[in-house]
Each structure stands twice: as structure tokens, then as C-alpha cells.
TrEMBL record:
UniProt feature, compositional bias: Low complexity: 339-365
Keywords: ATP-binding, Coiled coil, Microtubule, Motor protein, Nucleotide-binding
Protein name: Kinesin-like protein
Highest taxon listed in the record's lineage: Eukaryota
Domain Kinesin motor positions: 1-242
Coiled-coil segments: 272-328
Chain segments carrying region Disordered: 333-406
Species this protein is from: Myxozyma melibiosi
Length: 406
């Protein structure tokens, strides 16, 4: 019945993971080296298959066909995954494209059957295992809305086909085991009545391990809810009576494919090891080159610092020489100025002495005359001094003029 927690049981919440996240975590924990894991996710809505990982694919292009003892969907996208988070991300992407609508019994009701198939291939034993996780839509009574009523009719028809198969398998188990195709000599199993049962034929035929989780609403009190609960419990009782004999179905085609896959994986592994060895060699060579470049840089730096110190010493020596030359030039200029000044003073005193010696005899031999007779003498003396002594003529006049009597 809808609204009893089927989707919650399968998916759960982050704080309480459901069956799908727990199964995925266990698969990747136990996956060995060389294992190949791929996944497909589909829904059966109104008996039409939809690819949840590629919603743009038209339903008409998705056809059921049997391949290597398994019923596969031709045209369905199958993606290889390498980690559990990657797979959970794909499932979340598929859930966002799934058909859900509000009904009279559930605000968010799944309107389709969702089937998540995980393909697990092991290279060491050439075996391929398939884990099918199904989240079925709940059965409903006729709804008032025409679209919901149509969806409910398809859902109920597929669930009725599943119930019929479970009932016949349960009856057959009491007498004899079913054959490899899921049927016995006296019992016909109608797997083709529904796409859901056709897709799960290998799992339901008794050759696989099957777990069935039936959910009911313990708080349901209406007559309709009670009837749905009883039908669910009868279905669970029939499913419990089915005898299963798990067997490995490895056909020649599948074996050849597995061998080819194993050879390819081994070749890729050898290529990877060779690439890793070459990478290690390159790393060692690169480390040597880096070390050599570092040492060369250190040597060049030391050489540069040594040349710098030598240039600084040369600069200091040149500064000292320039200082010495500057002091010598200044001392030489000072000596020249002193010598020139001394020469001028000596020449001046010599000229004065010559003038004085020339004027002295003239003054002594000249008699004392009147003021008129003195003028020419003064003029002569003055003229002689102007020629010999330059600008000291007036002083000579004052010196050599005789005193007048009063």
C-alpha cells in the first residue's frame, strides 16, 4: 500500500541510511583490485521504461531483451563508477527525474517502479554479479483524478502479475524446483505479463538470492487499509515459501567477454606499472637536475659575492688615491699662492729702496732757497718716484719736501 515507507526503507536519510546506501558501501568495501562496477537506473511508468540517468532517451528506444541469461534493457545507459559517493550522486540524479505525485493517501507518492541495477565484475574469477534493488509503487484504489486513476491501474496490474508469479513459484516449490528458465513441466510462470516481472525474471526464477521487504501501516484503521495490509501479508507468506537454488550462470559468451576483459585489465595494469616506473625515473632525474641547478646557483652566488667584495675593495683603493691626489693638488696650489705673494712683497720693497736711495743725495746737495726754487725739485722727485714706485708718488713728495722756515 502507498504511504507505508517503502522508499524510506530503500533510501533512508543521511542520519539513518536505507538499504541502497548500505549495500553500496558494502560493495565498495569488499571490491578488490581489478573489479569493475557499473550501474543503470530505470523506472517503469505506465508500463513504459524510462532511463533515469538519461531522461532524454525516448521510451520507444528502450527494449527488453535477453543477454547471457539476463534480461537487459537495450539502449539503457550504463555508467561505470569508481567510488560510493559517485554512485550515490548518480542515484540522487535519477531520483530527481522520477515520477512522483500527491495522492489521496500520500502527499509525495511514487507513481512508478524504480529498479537500480549494479553490475559487479571480478577479474580474478571471470564472474559477473547483478544486484537489483527495486522500489515498487504501492497499490491503490481508484482515485478521483483521471491521471492518478490511470497510473494506479498500471501499478496494480504489474503488482498483480508479480503476486501471481510469487504464488505459482510458491506452489511449484512444494512439488519440484523450477527449471533454469523459471518454469517446470506442469507449471507455467507468466513472466512476460509485466515488464517488471520480465526484467526480474532471473532473480525470481530461484537461481538468485532474493530478499523481499513488505511494509504495512500499523496505524491503519479503515476497512480499505486493513484489506491492503492482509494482501501484503499474504504476498510475504507466499514469497517466503519459494525455494531458491542460487547458481552461477556463466555462458560461453559471457566467459569469452570476461576473458577479454581480464586480458584488457591485465594489459592496462602492465601499462600502468610501466608508466609508474617511467614516472619514478623521471622524478629521480628531475630531482638530480634540480639539485644540480641549486648547486650551480649557489656557486654562482658565491662567485658574484666574491667579485662584489673585490670591486668594493678596488673602489675603496681608488677613493684613497683620489683623496691623496686632491690633497696634493690643494697643497701645491697653496704653495704657489704663497710664493707669488712673497715675490710681490719682495719686488715692492726693492723698488721703494731704490727710490729712496736715488732721492737722498739730491736733497742733501740742494741749498736752502726760497719757496719758488723748491718746486722743481719736488716735481723732479715726484716724477722720479712715479716712474719707479708707481702709486706711492705722493708719499715720496711728503717725505722729501724740505721744511720751510717760519
Amino acid at each position: 500500500m502507498t504511504g507505508t515507507g517503502k522508499t524510506y526503507t530503500m533510501q533512508g536519510v543521511p542520519s539513518s541510511p536505507g538499504l541502497i546506501p548500505l549495500a553500496i558501501a558494502d560493495i565498495f568495501d569488499k571490491a578488490g583490485y581489478g573489479s569493475v562496477i557499473s550501474v543503470s537506473y530505470l523506472e517503469i511508468y505506465n508500463e513504459r521504461v524510462r532511463d533515469l540517468l538519461n531522461p532524454s532517451t525516448p521510451s520507444d528506444a528502450l527494449k527488453l531483451q535477453e543477454q547471457a541469461d539476463l534480461v537487459r534493457v537495450r539502449g539503457l545507459r550504463c555508467i561505470r563508477v569508481d567510488s560510493a559517493p559517485e554512485l550515490l550522486e548518480l542515484i540522487a540524479k535519477g531520483d530527481s527525474a522520477r515520477k512522483t505525485e500527491g495522492t489521496e493517501y500520500n502527499a509525495v507518492s511514487s507513481r512508478s517502479h524504480a529498479v537500480l541495477q549494479i553490475f559487479f565484475e571480478r577479474a580474478e574469477n571471470n564472474a559477473t554479479s547483478v544486484l537489483s534493488l527495486c522500489d515498487l509503487a504501492g497499490s491503490e484504489r481508484a482515485a478521483s483524478d483521471a491521471e492518478r486513476r490511470k497510473e494506479g491501474a498500471y501499478i496494480n496490474r504489474s503488482l498483480l502479475a508479480l503476486g501471481t508469479i510469487i504464488s505459482r513459484l510458491s506452489s511449484a516449490s512444494s512439488s519440484q524446483l523450477p527449471t533454469s528458465d523459471g518454469s517446470s513441466s506442469s507449471t507455467h510462470i507468466p513472466y512476460r505479463d509485466s515488464k517488471l516481472t520480465r526484467l526480474l525474471q532471473h532473480s525470481l526464477s530461484g537461481q538468485a538470492l532474493v530478499s523481499v521487504i513488505c511494509t504495512i501501516d500499523p496505524h491503519a484503521t479503515s476497512k480499505q487499509s486493513t484489506g491492503e495490509t492482509l494482501n501484503t501479508l499474504r504476498f510475504a507468506a507466499r514469497a517466503k515459501n519459494i525455494t531458491i537454488t542460487p547458481a552461477r550462470a556463466l555462458s560461453a559468451t559471457n566467459a569469452a567477454t570476461s576473458v577479454a576483459t581480464t586480458a584488457l585489465i591485465e594489459s592496462l595494469r602492465l601499462d600502468l606499472e610501466r608508466e609508474r616506473a617511467e614516472t619514478e625515473i623521471v622524478k629521480v632525474e628531475l630531482a638530480d637536475v634540480r639539485k644540480e641547478a641549486y648547486e650551480r646557483a649557489i656557486r654562482e652566488r658565491e662567485m658574484w659575492e666574491r667579485e662584489k667584495r673585490e670591486l668594493e675593495l678596488q673602489r675603496d683603493a681608488l677613493k684613497d688615491k683620489v683623496g691623496q691626489l686632491t690633497r696634493m693638488i690643494l697643497a701645491s696650489s697653496s704653495d704657489k699662492r704663497s710664493a707669488s705673494a712673497s715675490a710681490r712683497s719682495v719686488s715692492g720693497s726693492t723698488a721703494a729702496s731704490v727710490a729712496a736711495s736715488a732721492a737722498a743725495p739730491a736733497s742733501e746737495s740742494t741749498p736752502r732757497t726760497t719757496r719758488k726754487s723748491l718746486a722743481p725739485t719736488a716735481a723732479v722727485a715726484s716724477g722720479g718716484n712715479e716712474k719707479e714706485g708707481g702709486d706711492r708718488g705722493e708719499d715720496e713728495i711728503q717725505i722729501f719736501l724740505p721744511k720751510q722756515r717760519v
